[in-house]
Amino acid sequence: MKKIKIDKKAIIVANGKKPSKKVFNQLLKQGYSTIVAADGGANSLHEMGITPNFIIGDFDSLSSSTLKKIKPGVTELIKISRQSDTDVEKSIKYLIKKKFTHIMLLGVDGNRFDHLLGNLSLGLKYLDKIIINIIVGDSALSFLGSSENISTKKGEIVSVFGFSERGNLTSDGLKYSLEVLNLTFGNQDSISNIATKSEIKLKIDSGKFILVRSIKTFFHK
Questions:
Q1: Model-level pTM?
Q2: 137: phi > 0 → left, psi -120 to 50 → alpha, else beta; which?
């Protein structure tokens, strides 16, 4: 009998803007059953009345009062002091080691734009090892490194950004077709493109990309 692969999905909450409870509940319905607080992300979770399964980081942002209140319900506290990785990257590495397949990253936006950029960089860095999506405001960000068919709705606005020296792809199902052009950051982007079909086909010949779309369509794809 063929063994069925079971997806292991986790939410990582970073120490940025507190995520939406509505979005959080939607992710739980979609099977994101493991909750990881990247250090100070535990503060936001505590404010939401949610206890994470794991807290990972160097614990420099986690308040002592929060830790005292939620510690009894936490499965494991994983203190990693090295400064070469951010707390989010430590969390990603831990989940990869535990053979998780999907990560939804929340709480990446806030007052530190460098933190947001750093987390986007991590999505690209670990693209070949695990599926990472990020929710920022009303947008869902996906990282692409190979051809993919994306369920959508006609009229949905999507944007594609390339982050490699060469970023070549072909699209089907977009109003403004992308035809093996050099889609690279600082050179050429596809902003506010429009889906013309119920499925967008992106054939990627080379490069890494970030696809930005509405969370409403992302959750009901």
A1: 0.91
A2: left
